[in-house]
Description:
Largest sheet: 8 strands, mixed
Distance between the termini: 27 Å
Radius of gyration: 29 Å
Number of strands: 23
Helix content: 25-40%
Strand order of the largest sheet: 8-2-7-6-12-11-13-10
Shape: globular
Amino acid sequence: xMSATTRTVAVTVPDWPLVAALDxxxxxxxxxxxxxxxxxxxxSADPPTDPAVDPAHDPVLLLDQHRVTHASAAAQxxxxxxxxxxxxxxxACPEALVLEADREHESALxxxxxxAVDTIAAGVDVLRPGVLLxxxxxxxxxxxxxxxxxxxxxxxxxxxxxWDCAVGIADGPFAALLASPxxxxxxxxxxxxYLAPHPIAALAGAPVGPGWGHRGQPSATRPERRLDxxxxxxxxxxxxxxxxxxxxxxxxxxxxxxxxxxxxxxHLLARGEEPAPPATHHPTQPxxxxxxxxxxLVRTDQAAFIAxxxxxxxxxxxxxxxxxxxxxxxxxxxxxxxEMERTWRHDxxxxxxxxxxxxxxxxxxxxxxxxxxxxxxxxxTRIGLHPLQLAPAGxxxxxxxGSAGEAAVRASRAFARAQGLAGEDAVQVPALVGGRxxxxxxxLVPWRGEKxxxxxxxxxxxxPRPVPAxxxxxxxxxxxxxxxxxxxxxxxxxxxxxSPARLLVTAPGAPVLxxxxxxxxxxxxxxxxxxxxxxxxxxxxxxxARSARLQLVVRSAHEEETAVLALSRIGSWMLEGLxx
Length: 580
């Protein structure tokens, strides 16, 4: 599904893991040198410098699990390249400074960059350490234009942190990320033209997750595998596709049939478009997990003890409501009354472990930023978690055949063959279009056909999630009776005339009703029922209609409890759906 592209600002620090590792190395070196202390014995507030290491000219290697992940230009000039083992890289460049990656330090240190950008524009989201994303329209209007906004971000980061960053602005996060290293501002509507000449290898950093993440979702058929962007790029190159423009020129249906939905998403990005975000959910009561600390948080190791209980509390709240979170705001209050906040995006639903990591990283960044050259932070006395982007848990589940793999390809081929034999309308899939009634909310369209435009709400009276698993397009008629055998109706005041005791099926319905034992002429006791929900459709017009919904639990002919959704119109009842 495609949505209108968002004008996006991407702020990146090139080779951030290498920059963070060098900073850690230089600070450790400074701590071992007494000359770096001030006369009163306190550590210097200025970032220390190591004259023996100049990343612009000296060879530096960054290792993670004994493999090179980043190499300075001087190291690459000697043949030490990312992807090499430690032994091979040291053999190619024995004089290189070898550093180990530290994700905790990278995340904490990047708070300085996020705080610097915060001084120019609010609403900054951390995609991952080294990359910030934010909407461009509001900040650009406030600053006087996108060019001015980019210049002020560059100046703020350089002045407050001492590091160089790059800013790119374009339609959609992928184009903005590619525009960031050269510092380009791509005009509106020109993202596809800007992306076209880029090599296909640019897909290696594509944001392919629903949370604008940087890695794919696990496959349902092979959960241990994720979409390997490096393998995908290599495959496309071996097929002769060398640029994003060549990939974008391929027919969308052919890409989806041949490679599956994951590569189809990459094809969408190469065309300068972006996938639609997950359907957001807005609960009637805001969800907040918060804790007040008896002992103020002044050390980073304390964050590990409070992170898990807080993350589990938030997870329990989301589970109770059947929701998942893909965007989380962490808020802290200090003993001096200062409030700090930072928003984290994620590739898919945030698990308890994901939330724990982000609490630790963020608290580490806030606590240590004064030592790292940023503004001083008092002891933290309260921490809160605010989910900003919520979606029904079922909508985040993998597809029926998974998100990748041979099963998805086989299913696509079967669909294509069925359409070739019986016509395009032989295979139809549901598409959300919006509406009050369940039958109006979803429209069937041919598979691989153009999706209809979604009708924007709000839809007062629409059914809250979770919705029935089975929805009838032709509503089977039923009758509700009370204990005395009188018909039950919904009064003008929206109340039931009596408590329903029996549900009578008056006409043959769908096969699913037959399987449940709800056959024509059968009567079933009502075990429980809710309150009727009145729907006023177009009450301001002469053709307006009034109806009411009622949720019931009945005992079927097989002595099983079945939850149904009944709809009342002009005194008559019909079944609108069945719950699993």
